[in-house]
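Support request from a user on the community tier.

User writes: "When I paste my structure tokens into the form, the page sometimes reloads and wipes my input. The last time it worked, I copied everything first. Here is what I submitted, just in case something in the input itself triggers the reload:"
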């Protein structure tokens, strides 16, 4: 079966480079699936998981925003941050989730609620991907 070369890259360097039969990720306009020979595309990504399928195996990557670039034989994900499921520090993610929840529940004026909501969304995404 045909495959796509997939690269997931962050400012800290490459997270994953391999060949897969299908890529599924969460774009800002909804979930998108990419197969070999897909039309060229660039779209912003939302916080979410990336599913990379090869045969009966599926790899998961937690992505925190960025861009998806698709060419007929290559998919590049330029993410603000990304972690493979096996590399996620669950204890750290749980602490981040708790901190964000505490900030959102506080009634203090100096709390940046939008930032706290994004932190909570990122932590929950990491925990969801780590459980797969």
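"...and here is what came back when it finally went through:"
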């Amino acid at each position: 079966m045909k495959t796509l070369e997939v690269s997931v890259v962050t400012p800290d360097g490459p997270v994953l480079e391999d060949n897969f039969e299908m890529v599924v990720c969460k774009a800002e306009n909804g979930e998108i699936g990419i197969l070999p020979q897909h039309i060229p595309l660039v779209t912003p990504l939302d916080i979410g998981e990336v599913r990379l399928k090869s045969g009966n195996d599926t790899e998961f990557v937690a992505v925190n925003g960025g861009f998806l670039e698709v060419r007929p034989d290559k998919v590049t994900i330029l993410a603000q941050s990304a972690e493979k499921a096996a590399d996620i520090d669950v204890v750290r993610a749980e602490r981040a989730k708790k901190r964000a929840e505490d900030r959102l529940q506080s009634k203090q004026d100096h709390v940046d609620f939008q930032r706290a909501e994004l932190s909570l969304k990122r932590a929950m995404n990491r925990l969801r991907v780590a459980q797969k």
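Agent notes: The reload is a front-end session timeout and is unrelated to the input. The longest strand covers residues 57-71. Residues 5 and 19 are 4 Å apart (CA to CA). Escalated to web team.
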